[in-house]
């Protein structure tokens, strides 16, 4: 694992870095969500992602904690599905996106979530995002149905709109707040107090927190 992909690259105990992956069917708005989050922009037309796109964004939480998210926006087309494990492997958190106007996209999201539960790290934090909330007149999936599923599966849940920015910042902030800060701080403390064993302590901390690695 390279130094740039560790949970933290700074000596300050309040700065952390995590890997986040976006999954979901094609055209549900994954790339639009990321663009809104990272650049506060929205394009009415975006070409489908090929393979995956990589972006970063930094969040400053209320307790002076700084979180840098390394974001992998994966392609939703079926021909790229076999590549997905490369991107969610060792991810600390995931956003699985569906389109509230397309019932099949929620079923696809459930398949992705099942796959994450089986193959991703058991400590991964997952959020279910019902995108295109601005298209209320075309809604085909009720908020209650999706929320009930999310609660049963132990997921964070938001309905979002990349177009209006509704709940976009809230979604990524909620994920950041769920990260294992205390475990990382404890591992840093052990490293400081036991410099001779610092490499061993850090490796153990990464095993527990699944530091970012691609």
Key features of this structure:
GTP-binding protein of the rab/ypt; 7 helices; 214 residues
Describe what this molecule looks like in 3D.
Helix content is 36%, strand content 21%. It is α/β, with parallel strands linked by helices. It has a 6-stranded mixed sheet, sandwiched between helices. Strand 4, helix 3 (103-119) and strand 5 form a beta-alpha-beta unit. The protein is globular, with a radius of gyration of 17 Å.
Low-confidence stretches: 1-12, 198-214
Q: How far from one another are the termini?
A: 8 Å
Helix content: 25-40%
The number of helical segments is 7
Largest sheet: 6 strands, mixed
Output the structural class: alpha/beta
Q: Strand order, biggest sheet?
A: 2-3-1-4-5-6
Task: State Rg.
Answer: 17 Å
- Overall outline: globular
Strand content: 15-25%
| Average pLDDT metric | 83
Work out the number of β strands. 6
- The sequence of SSEs as H and E is EHEEHEHEHEHHH
Protein name: GTP-binding protein of the rab/ypt
Organism: Entomophthora muscae
């Amino acid at each position: 694992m390279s130094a740039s992909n560790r949970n933290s690259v700074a000596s300050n105990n309040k700065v952390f870095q995590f890997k986040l992956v976006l999954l979901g069917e094609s055209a549900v708005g994954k790339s639009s969500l990321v663009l809104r989050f990272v650049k506060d922009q929205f394009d009415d037309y975006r070409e489908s992602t090929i393979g995956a796109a990589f972006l970063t964004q930094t969040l400053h939480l209320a307790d002076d904690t700084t979180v840098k998210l390394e974001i992998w926006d994966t392609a939703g087309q079926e021909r790229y599905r076999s590549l997905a494990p490369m991107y969610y492997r060792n991810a600390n958190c995931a956003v699985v996106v569906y389109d509230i106007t397309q019932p099949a996209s929620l079923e696809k999201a459930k398949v992705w979530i099942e796959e994450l539960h089986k193959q991703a790290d058991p400590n991964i934090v997952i959020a279910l995002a019902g995108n295109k909330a601005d298209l209320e007149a075309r809604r085909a999936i009720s908020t209650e149905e999706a929320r009930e599923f999310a609660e049963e599966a132990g997921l964070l849940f938001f309905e979002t709109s990349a177009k209006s920015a509704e709940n976009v910042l809230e979604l990524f902030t909620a994920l950041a707040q769920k990260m294992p800060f205390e475990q990382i701080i404890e591992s840093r403390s052990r490293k400081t107090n036991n410099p001779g064993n610092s490499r061993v302590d850090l490796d153990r901390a990464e095993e527990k927190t699944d530091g970012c690695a691609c």
